[in-house]
Amino acid sequence: MEWEAGPGPPTTPHAHRPALRGALDRLVHDVAARMPAALGRHLLFLASQHRFGRFRHPVTFSEKVNWRILHDRREIIRVSCDKLATKERARQLGLAVPETVWCGTDLTELARVRLPERWILKPNYGSGLTHLGSGPTADVPALLAATRDWPARTGRSQWGEWAYSGARPLLILEVMLDDQGIPPRDFKFFAFDGEPALIQIYQDRFTHPRRRYYTTGWQALAVQTGGPWGSLPLAPILPQPSTLPLMLKAVRTMAQGYDFIRVDLYSVGGTVYVGEITPYPNGGLARFSPRAFDTELGRLWHLPTATETAPGPPAAGTR
Asked: How far is CA 81 from the centre of its chain?
């Protein structure tokens, strides 16, 4: 399909008001959490998209993500939100993953673990929460304080996103991948029926996050995404990475069996690493600009039937 290339629209004026944005987001999610699931999703969608969603007969990509949240209960969807299960699957498929140094529920165990020079702590059961660290020993009291509200924040951010409820409630400490002294870029591939179709790249994600979309042929797109209160700045156009063919191959490997999945990769020193996969990008609440892009992306996604979305048997090692 053809998508317009170019510099993209300007950042929305609310993008630099994080306190207000966060407070309004929490309020909307708290209200939605008290409503029946379908009504709650409609409220969240309305707040983000400024229009009502067509969840019974979805057309756009965002509407189809919400349809999946409400209806798709397949085991292949549930297991995709368990980070450790995804890493194990990637290893079995012959793909590289960041080394897991420790996983568990009791952070005091880290007092007896020698850590790498740079590391990252994240929950196995959610997205958007990380803690960066350095040095061979962990400051356990500081980690306990930093992660104390993670369960509550994860529950709110994953509101209604069924698959996260099946992920094991563990914390993961990984070796922090290093790209010439800085965290590597985050390559997020949108794959439909096992084939990558779109790339979203996050740059400087822990300092001054920016993003840019590309086609798989490395054409920069005039597309931005934002939530109800703003969007990230558009990242500068990057040269095509030498590992792009390897990344596309890894995505095809990880995306087999999915009508849609987003596969997140890192490219460091010529090696491609699988980070995670997600069935619900941005919870189906990201607002695309231009709006027509949401419809174009939705045309690539052929939803399964109601019979096909019935629950399946649990995957080994995820219970």
From this structure: 9
β-strand partners of 122: 172
Two tokens, residue 18: 């994080």
Tally of domains in the chain = 1
Report the largest interatomic distance among the alpha carbons of the chain, rounded to a whole angstrom.
Answer: 54
The pTM assigned to this predicted structure is: 0.88
Instruction: For residue 195, give both structure tokens.
Output: 């084939």
Cα separation, 50 vs 58, whole angstroms: 16
Does 205 map to a domain?
Answer: yes
103 closest CA partner among 87, 91, 127: 87
Query: What backbone torsions phi and psi does residue 197 show, to the nearest 5 degrees?
Result: -130, -20
Which residues on neighbouring strands pair with residue 179, listed in sequence order?
Answer: 182
What confidence tens digit (pLDDT) does each residue in 46-77 have? 999 989 999 999 999 999 999 999 999 999 99
Q: Is residue 122 part of a domain?
A: no
Structural domain harbouring 266: 13-95+182-298
Using left for φ > 0, alpha for ψ between -120 and 50, and beta otherwise, residue 160 falls in left
* Contact criterion met (CB below 8 Å) for 230 and 15: yes
Order of strands, sheet of 171-175, starting from the edge strand that comes earlier in the sequence = 100-104, 171-175, 118-123, 131-134
- Cα angle 288, 213, 176 (rounded to 5 degrees) comes to 115
Tens-digit pLDDT profile for residues 109-136 = 999 999 999 999 999 988 888 999 999 9
Query: Would you say residue 105 lies in a domain?
Result: no
Spatial separation of the C-alpha atoms in residues 214 and 208, rounded to whole Å: 20
Q: What is d(CA 103, CA 174) in angstroms, rounded to the nearest whole number?
A: 9
DSSP-derived letter for residue 128 is S
User: What's the order of all strands across the beta sheet hosting 195-203?
Assistant: 210-214, 195-203, 186-192, 260-268, 271-278
Beta bridge partners of 273: 96, 266
| Distance (Å, whole) CA 190 – CA 200 | 8
